[in-house]
Amino acid sequence: MKRRGKYCRRRTRRGGSLVEMALVAPILVMLTFGAIQYGYYIYVKNQMYGAASNGAAEASLSTSTNTTVSSAVTTAMTNANLQNTSYTVSTNPSSVSGLPSGTSVSVTVSLNWGNVGISPLPTALGGIASTKTITATATMRRQ
To answer: Nearest to residue 54, comparing CAs of 133, 107, 125, 122?
Structure first.
């Protein structure tokens, strides 16, 4: 004799939970990978702003040269573990040596996301393209 009642109904509900999980799991995985990728992007951008700020602080000194500015940026990028990312450093004006006091000096650090980024989420699903260029600029007045 077969039992009927609440035990029989529970077995039929297990399949529904499995189907719901199969539909929701890919969305949760994509959201997780997207959060990781965009979180790391924000970290890299913040570290680049710090490096540009260090470079601009160095460029604001009356004794600075383009070499000391690049060295300040390199130190900051190395401390952030971004030293092997093929980043570029540029200053505006192009030479910081001998500028008069009060002149604004900008330092720009840029790199390609494909050289530094992790890409667990494809671009078609909302991920960051590997061709994206990240740029950070800081400006200070010469002392």
So the answer is: 107
